[in-house]
Write a structure and sequence with these properties.
The chain is an alpha/beta fold. It is 33% helix and 21% strand. It is built from twelve helices and 18 strands. The strands form four sheets. A six-stranded mixed β-sheet has the order 7-8-9-10-11-12, with helices on both faces. A six-stranded mixed β-sheet has the order 13-14-18-15-16-17, sandwiched between helices. Strands 3-4-5-6 form a four-stranded parallel β-sheet.
Length: 416
């Protein structure tokens, strides 16, 4: 949503030296990707502080930067600075203000848009409640509850309670779309007074996938079943977990007026997002680049997908999984044993606790090796991968396993 800086300052009760008539054409917390005319919010994260990158954002022609008042003294030139008490709170306040002012828009969404799909990530209890107050969603979708962020939660049940905050935040006329096959999520609709739509592989799901045929890296085909309607459809995303994601999307589409045949046709046009199941061909080697993030449940799902693919060898390059707390060591061991059970030909563990994954896989009779960095993994792949292999890359975001693919590709170019 485009806003004059005077209106932004009004919403945020902000002060500072800036051009009140200048227009913010967008909003960003990342100085590396900010575009000219966007407003930079100097948010402090767990590892980095946006206040260290204000000059960089302004050099990239940000219209201005929102900074904390107690940080103003560090900047010799204070023009184009908007001062607030708390920058993260200011960003949230701006989102709430815009949502109230325009019935169907949020920051970054323009009046011509009809629907906004907003991901609400969390690592602590209460965060989804805060985000829902900003977004005021009409439909709430929960796909699953997995053992992630256990560093900040005592149990998976606590994670489920944190995800339930989305359902609790919906208004009485809202709709919740829930995974009928997830032991936690399937219970989220019990006390909800709005409409509940279930998706899954079997009744009582309202939106179902039946007669599934997996086609390796090409994805799958299945019958999309909605009431008495059955449509054969193709999903070009690999893995059962992506079928669940597709069913959730179909359920939302149906609520917004799509017919089952229109929804089925739309699925066939999908393509994987960056680092989220992308299929890359390096000569006669197939690489599944799913290294955007990882957790034990997601890793097991991709290993199951890899195991079902035809290949000369199936190689899992698995980086450590972060934020698992005290349970992390055993969860890495479980993942190693799961790979052995699925008869994956080779595991290359990358960094930290992935060493325990490797040890458990070896103990179960599987060939497994360990390297300390993604760059070393890339060198290993350039040396060891062979024509006909299928290679899975998956790790937590902090591992940056995409560097393995970059290193591998550069080594191949040097050798060619």
């Amino acid at each position: 949503m485009r806003l004059p800086l005077s209106r932004v300052a009004e919403f945020l009760a902000a002060t500072g030296e800036f051009d009140h008539k200048a227009l913010a054409v967008g909003y960003s917390i990342d100085s590396r990707t900010i575009q000219p005319g966007e407003l930079f919010f100097a948010v402090k994260g767990e590892r980095m502080d946006g206040h260290d990158f204000v000059a960089q954002a302004l050099d990239r022609n940000a219209v201005a930067a929102v900074v904390r008042k107690d940080q103003l003294a560090r900047y010799a030139v204070k023009t184009r600075l908007i001062a607030v008490d708390d920058t993260l709170g200011a960003l949230q306040t701006l989102g709430s203000a815009v949502r109230r002012l325009w019935a169907k828009t949020l920051v970054g969404v323009e009046p011509e848009h009809d629907i906004a799909v907003i991901e609400m990530g969390m690592s602590h209890a209460g965060e989804i409640t805060a985000l829902a107050k900003i977004a005021q969603p009409d439909i709430g979708v929960v796909t699953n509850v997995a053992p992630v962020h256990l560093e900040f939660f005592n149990s998976v049940s606590d994670i489920a309670r944190a995800k339930y905050e989305l359902i609790a935040s919906l208004h009485a006329g809202g709709t919740t779309v829930l995974n009928a096959d997830d032991e936690y999520v399937s219970q989220f609709g019990r006390d909800f007074h709005g409409k509940v739509v279930l998706f899954g592989m079997k009744p009582p799901a309202d939106v179902r996938a039946e007669n599934i045929e997996h086609r390796g890296t090409a994805g799958s085909t299945f019958d999309l079943v909605v009431g008495g309607c059955r449509e054969r459809t193709t999903l070009p995303l690999a893995g059962t977990h992506n079928i669940y994601n597709a069913l959730a999307a179909v359920a939302v589409g149906l609520e917004r007026g799509l017919s089952p045949s229109e929804a089925a046709g739309a699925l066939a046009s999908l393509a994987p997002a960056d680092k989220r199941g992308q299929v890359v061909q390096l000569g006669n080697i197939t690489v599944i680049n799913d290294c955007y993030n990882s957790n034990p449940k997601a890793l097991d799902a991709m290993v199951d997908t890899l195991a079902a693919m035809p290949a000369r060898r199936r190689i899992a390059v698995a980086g450590e999984m972060l934020e698992l707390g005290p349970a992390g060591e055993e969860m890495h061991r479980h993942s190693g044993r799961h790979m052995a059970e699925k008869k994956i030909d080779l595991l290359l563990g990358v960094r930290g606790l992935a060493q325990l994954m490797v040890e458990a896989a070896r103990a179960a009779g599987m060939k497994a090796e360990f390297v300390a960095s993604p760059e070393e993994a890339g060198e290993w792949l350039a040396r060891e991968a062979r024509a006909g292999d299928v290679v899975l890359l998956k790790a937590s975001r902090g591992v940056k396993l995409e560097k393995a693919l970059e290193k591998w590709t550069s080594q191949l170019e040097v050798g060619s």
